[in-house]
């Protein structure tokens, strides 16, 4: 299994408010991948995403691995950690004036072999490439997503909507937050792509699929995704975690 992690400030921003992290246990038998996109101003956005990724990592390192061997166990663990970190971010903001209003999106995937359990909050995304094609497995917690669901705007209109970056759920902004917990499989010949909206706002799904399934190592393909987003303007920070369970081998066969 190949893993690549990339984060880039983009072409317009001076500070990268995205954070990424990969944490492993038992020689990689258990893995946690996290992407967080902070918000609330330069200092507070960076603080929120850093606290979230570091917090997930610290919890993972001391987690009872018995609880991470089943989907139910991983789901409960992710929900519990999310609740604790939400309280931590709120408390930090209360005692630090410069961090008032901070929050962050979260994509946190616990991977145990071919089994994956995903925790999703906000408008960062997770995609999966497999035998059935390339699919977005998360649903944005955003205003435009609600408008699309209600039929008020189309998917095409959502991409250019003036409030397309307005999210309705984040970690650290409300007293409680309920993440989407999504069980997935990552069989041989498939891949997961976790990313911030700095990537998904610039690349269509076909472009992402072609790059993820394309030539090169996982690191080279992750670099290509970031480069493409920057070539399109790179107005936002861009973060990518690519977890490849033999996509290239399957394609070569």
Automatic annotation (TrEMBL):
SMART domains noted in UniProt: PP2C_SIG, PP2Cc
PROSITE patterns in UniProt: PPM_2
Ranges where the PPM-type phosphatase domain occurs: 2-245
InterPro entries reported in the protein's UniProt record: PPM-type-like_dom_sf, PPM-type_phosphatase-like_dom
Record-linked CDD domains: PP2Cc
Domain of life of the source: Bacteria
Name of this chain's protein: Protein phosphatase
Source organism: Bhargavaea beijingensis
């Amino acid at each position: 299994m190949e893993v690549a992690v990339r984060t880039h400030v983009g072409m317009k921003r001076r500070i990268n408010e995205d954070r990424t992290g990969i944490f492993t246990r038992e020689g990689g038998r258990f893995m946690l991948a996290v992407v967080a996109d902070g918000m609330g101003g330069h200092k507070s956005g960076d603080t929120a995403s850093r606290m979230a990724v570091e917090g997930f990592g610290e919890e993972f390192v001391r987690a009872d691995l018995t609880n991470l061997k089943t989907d139910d166990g991983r789901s409960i663990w992710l929900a519990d950690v999310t609740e604790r970190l939400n309280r931590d971010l709120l408390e930090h903001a209360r005692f630090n004036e410069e961090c008032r209003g901070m929050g962050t999106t979260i994509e946190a995937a616990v991977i145990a072999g071919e089994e994956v359990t995903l925790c999703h909050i906000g408008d960062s995304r997770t995609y999966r490439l497999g035998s059935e094609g390339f699919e977005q497995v998360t649903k944005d917690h955003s205003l435009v997503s609600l408008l699309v669901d209600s039929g008020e705007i189309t998917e095409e209109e959502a991409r250019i909507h003036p409030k397309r970056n307005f999210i309705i759920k984040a970690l650290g902004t409300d007293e409680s937050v309920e993440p989407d917990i999504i069980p997935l499989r990552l069989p041989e010949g498939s891949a997961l792509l976790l990313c911030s909206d700095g990537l998904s706002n610039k690349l269509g799904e076909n472009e992402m699929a072609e790059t993820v399934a394309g030539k090169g190592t996982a690191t080279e393909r992750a670099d290509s995704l970031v480069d493409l987003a920057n070539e399109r303007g790179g107005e936002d920070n861009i973060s990518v975690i690519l977890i490849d369970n033999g996509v290239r081998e399957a394609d070569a066969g």
